[in-house]
Design a protein that fits this description.
Elements (H helix, E strand, L loop, with lengths): L1 E5 L2 E4 L4 E8 L7 E7 L6 E6 L6 E3 L7 E6 L4 E6 L8 E8 L13 E2 L3 E6 L1
Parallel strand pairs: 2-11
Antiparallel strand pairs: 1-3, 3-8, 4-5, 4-9, 5-6, 7-8, 9-10, 9-11
Length: 123
């Protein structure tokens, strides 16, 4: 499966962005999806994950209550709605797919990755 992440941009603190992860090549419903982010000089970290059905989601504590992950299976797209953004959310955001399990916070469990989209939040 090929993944294409988009929707990043620059916003002020308190603003919102919606990231998209579009899939092609294989039925996206066969994959759980995770969003990760990597800030300069830091490790890539888990942000949110969603199951194949879309019925289950998991979030990092740092984004819980502000970010929402959901999927539109008819469009083969997974979204990350980001509200009340903070400067510490600034990073390159990546989506990834896992065919074996859902909700894994370890990037090593994801076999397919999108190219990343930059999110910059100014104070």
């Amino acid at each position: 499966v090929q993944l294409q992440a988009s929707g990043g941009g620059s916003v002020q603190a308190g603003g919102s962005l919606r990231l998209s992860c579009a899939a092609s090549g294989r039925p996206f419903r066969k994959f759980a999806v995770g969003w990760f982010r990597q800030a300069p000089g830091k490790e890539r970290e888990f942000v949110a994950g969603i199951s194949r059905s879309g019925d289950n989601a998991i979030y990092a504590d740092s984004v819980k209550g502000r970010f929402t992950i959901f999927r539109d299976r008819t469009e083969s797209t997974v979204y990350l709605q980001m509200d009340n953004l903070k400067p510490e959310d600034t990073a390159v955001y990546y989506c990834a797919a896992d065919q074996m399990r859902w909700g894994s916070i370890s990037r090593t469990n994801y076999d397919w990755w999108g190219q990343g989209t930059q999110v910059t939040v100014s104070s």
